[in-house]
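Board notes (copied after class):
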Amino acid sequence: MALILGQEYPELYAAVGVHSGVPSGVATDLFSALMTMSAGPADGRGRRANARLRTSNVVPTIVFHGDADKTVHPSNGEAIHSRSRQRRRGGGAMLLPNDRSTKTRTRARPGARAVTRTHHSTGGIPDAELWVVHGGGHAWAGGSPDGTYTESGGPDASREMVRFLLQQRLNGATPQPGHQTT
C-alpha cells in the first residue's frame, strides 16, 4: 500500500518504506497476485506487460526482504528497489542522475543475521536502499521475539526506516534544524 500511495500521491509523500512486499501494479487479479508472491514479478523488473503505472512518480524507497522468504519471493524486494531508482522520461527508463551507489555486507554474529545493504544517494541524501536479510523469512526484521511475524535477529527495520524517512524532504525542501538524523 505504501508504494501505491507514494506513486499516486507523490506531492504528499516524501518517501516510502516496504518490508517483504510486492511491487505495485504487477497483479491484475488473484491468480497473478499469488503468482507474483510465489515466483516474483513476471518480467523481473516489477511490472507486468499490461500494468498501467505512473512511473514518473517514484519516491525515495527503502526496502527490507529476507532472502529465505517462502511467502513473498525475494525477487519482489529487488524489483521494488530497482524500480525506485528509475525515473521515466519520454517513455524510457533512466537511472537517477548523479547516483552514488554502495553495497555492504555484514557478517552474521551470535543472535543476528548477515545483511547486504545496497545504498543509492544523490547529493548525500539516500534515494533508495535495499536491505537483504540473509536467512530471513517472511518476518519483520529486528522485531520483538514475542511478536507474530517478527524476527529479532538481523537489522532493526523500524529504526532504519525511520532514519531513511527522516532524511527525505517533500518537494526538495531543506531540512529544518532539530530534524537531523545521525
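Comment from the instructor: The chain has a mean pLDDT of 82. The beta strands are 16-19, 61-66, 86-89, 92-95, 100-106, 115-122, 125-133, 140-141, 150-151.
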